[in-house]
């Protein structure tokens, strides 16, 4: 579960390495896979598309807490990760690194198509 002040990895090539969750959309206290959060960039790569300290939207694609699937199996990722998106819900990067759990919302189909592995 992702809360405010959670440090997250960025799973795309937008130029950000680490972001800090500063808000959750929908009036919730915690976010899970597929939820949209407001983040601030903490560390960036040179010549990236994002700037340090700027505020962006992101969708959660991996969480460390175990997730139970409908068939009874449990998925647990090694890190919390997000993909940065613009206001229209399209990813800022052109690649998504690492596995991604299937996002239930139809608005993030582009992220699932860019991912290397969808669980």
Features:
119 residues; mainly beta; Ribosomal Protein L14; five-stranded mixed beta barrel; two-stranded antiparallel sheet; 40% strand; globular; Ribosomal_uL14; Ribosomal_uL14_CS; Ribosomal_uL14_bac-type; large ribosomal subunit rRNA binding; rRNA-binding
Model description:
GO terms for molecular function: large ribosomal subunit rRNA binding; structural constituent of ribosome. One of its GO terms (cellular component) is cytosolic large ribosomal subunit. It holds the Pfam family Ribosomal_L14. Belongs to the universal ribosomal protein uL14 family. It comes from Wolbachia sp. subsp. Drosophila simulans (strain wRi). The chain is mainly β. It has a single domain (7-118), classed as Beta Barrel (Ribosomal Protein L14), CATH 2.40.150.20. The protein is 5% helix and 40% strand. It is built from 1 helix and 9 strands, in the order ββββββββαβ. It has one helix at residues 109-114; strands at 7-10, 16-24, 36-44, 55-62, 67-68, 74-75, 81-85, 96-100, 115-118. Strands 1-2-3-4-7 form a 5-stranded mixed beta barrel. Strand 5 (67-68) and strand 6 (74-75) form a beta hairpin. The radius of gyration is 13 Å and the shape is globular. The two termini are 18 Å apart. The mean pLDDT is 92.
């Amino acid at each position: 579960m992702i809360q405010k002040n959670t440090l997250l990895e960025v799973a795309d090539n937008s130029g950000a390495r680490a972001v800090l969750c500063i808000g959750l959309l929908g009036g919730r206290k915690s976010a899970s896979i597929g939820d949209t959060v407001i983040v601030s960039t903490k560390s960036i790569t040179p010549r990236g598309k994002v700037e340090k300290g700027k505020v962006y939207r992101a969708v959660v694609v991996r969480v460390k807490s175990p997730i139970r699937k409908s068939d009874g199996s449990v998925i647990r990722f090694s890190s919390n990760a997000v993909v940065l998106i613009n206001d229209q819900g399209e990813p800022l990067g052109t690649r998504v690194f690492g596995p991604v759990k299937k996002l239930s919302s139809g608005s993030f189909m582009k992220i699932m198509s860019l991912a290397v592995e969808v669980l």
